[in-house]
């Protein structure tokens, strides 16, 4: 066990989200709210899952802008996520508190990139969103990301245990998002080939 594991709450139990220090600056307040996913990470139980739901709900309108804007937003969320998660962790007084869910947002958005690229979310996005196939594709992406984020197969588990700071908080979710995206793409391609 590494030093940063010692201050991490037991996620199998209900945990209160550490409050923002009263002396926090305006910038710290903004970073804190981004870190907890605009409140989606506040629930006492399963904040990572609720945070992922929040990230998915935010991703839906972002995907409507098309693949390139969504890709840029996703890459930026990963880059600034190191600072957001690191600072939120410091404000909470411990490493990788489960209520920090910006990493889940970024990981979920990475999972959705192939869906955006393959035209499942294309110019007729708002018409497609009500179709059963679109909703199933979103649900499968969500389940795959949560599976990899919770089970943490290698190298996700290694990143979770060995890398500290904001990068450590982000890295396991980035890898989980990439792995989920790969599996989602394989499943989607298989379904397309069977349909033709």
Description of the molecule:
With 196 residues, the chain is an all-alpha fold. Helices cover 69% and strands 0% of the residues. The protein has nine helices and no strands. The chain has helices at residues 3-6, 26-35, 47-63, 67-92, 102-117, 125-128, 132-151, 156-162, 165-195.
What structural keywords apply?
globular, mainly alpha, disordered N terminus, 196 residues, single chain, 0% strand
In short:
The protein is mainly alpha-helical and 196 residues long. The chain contains 9 helices and no strands.
Low-confidence regions: 1-6
Assign a percent range to the helix content: 55-70%
Q: Helix- and strand-based class?
A: mainly alpha
Gross geometry = globular
Spatial extent as radius of gyration: 17 Å
- Helical segment count: 9
Bin the strand percentage: under 5%
Q: Report the span from N to C terminus.
A: 50 Å
Largest sheet: none
Got a strand count?
Answer: 0
- What pattern of helices and strands is seen along the backbone? HHHHHHHHH
The average pLDDT is 88
List the helices and strands and how they pair.
Layout: H1 3-6, H2 26-35, H3 47-63, H4 67-92, H5 102-117, H6 125-128, H7 132-151, H8 156-162, H9 165-195
